[in-house]
Structure formats: C-alpha cells, structure tokens
Amino acid sequence: MAKGHETCEVGLINGDFSHDLTAWTTSATGSGSVSINDSLSYGCLPSQTGNKFAFIAAYSGTGTLSQEFRVPAGSQILTLRAWNNLDPTTATISIVSGGQETVLDTFIPPSMQGLSNPNDYFSVICTGNAPASLSLPIAAFAGMKVTLRLTGSYISGVNGTFMSFDDVAIH
Questions:
Q1: What is residue 158's predicted lDDT score, i.e. its pLDDT?
Q2: How far is residue 38's CA from residue 61's CA, in Å, rounded to a whole number?
C-alpha cells in the first residue's frame, strides 16, 4: 500500500490517476521506471493530452503499479485501458490474494506510434491505433482483500518502449 495508507481501503482508489500515484505503489527493475504523464502521446492520442495516466518506461526492464484494496461485494469486472508508444512492451494484469498471484491477462497493447522508415529511429508517425480496452472477470475476488498489479515489461526496441495504463476501475 502506498505510504500514508495504513488500512486496506474498500474499492480501488485513483484508477484515473488524476491524483498522480496516490494509493498506488510502484516498483521497477533494470532501467524501468513508473511515473504519471499527461502529454507523452506526441499528438497520436489526443484524448490523453491533459488527462493524467500511468506511464511505464520499460526500456531493458519492467515497471509495476500495485494497489491493495478490498474488492467490493458484488463486483464482477475490472476495466482498464492500455497502450504502447512505439516499441512493443508486454502488459500483465494480475491479482494477488492470500499470497497467490492470478494472472488475469498478458498481452502486447497496441502501439500509438510507428516508424515511416524502419532504419530511421526518428521517423516517428502516428499509427491511428486506439488503446486496448479490457474487461476482466474478478467476481471470484469479491469481498476479498487483494493487490492489483499492472506491469509493463520490455520486449525489444530502442526508441519508445513506453507502456501506459488509465481508467482502471472495478464494477
């Protein structure tokens, strides 16, 4: 749990990252890092300009966001959006309960950028892709104290190995 949170809150807090990383803890390996951004889409995802989101720089490493909370009774799904900038990264969404990690999904989110010339790392263009919108079942965890983990992991690339998450919610 993030510093300053001594009790397990009921329900996910700050899933839109409007309060930066409040209620989230972060970790990173290798050259990975986790921060908040509101503009690093280079115009390829205009809806995120001024709209804060979690931003994982995964070059040669991983970055993880975690939040411990009690899943409200009757909750059925976890929803979120995820995307890459240029180079592919792997997103893993998991829930830890009772020391057991359950991976809900592992995938490569769509890239918002591409290269017009594969030999020129600075020939970045917009792909026209939209972020992945996920709905993952969590009914098995209703009423339980869990930790949600959102991880971005390096696959390959040298220019734009950035993974982003936003609009994380429990329904």
A1: 75
A2: 22
List residues bridging with 99 in a β-sheet: none
Domain boundaries, the chain: 9-170
Mean pLDDT of 116-137: 94
CA distance 161 to 49: 19
Q: What is the 3-state secondary structure (H, E, C) of 70-116?
A: ECCCCCCEEEEEEEECCCCEEEEEEEEECCEEEEEEEECCCECEEEC
Q: Could you tell me the pTM of the whole model? A: 0.91
Instruction: Provide CATH code, domain 9-170.
Output: 2.60.120.200
- For residue 48, the model assigns a pLDDT of 86
CB 17 within 8 A of CB 81: no
Each residue of 62-94: pLDDT tens digit?
A: 999 999 999 999 999 999 999 999 999 999 999
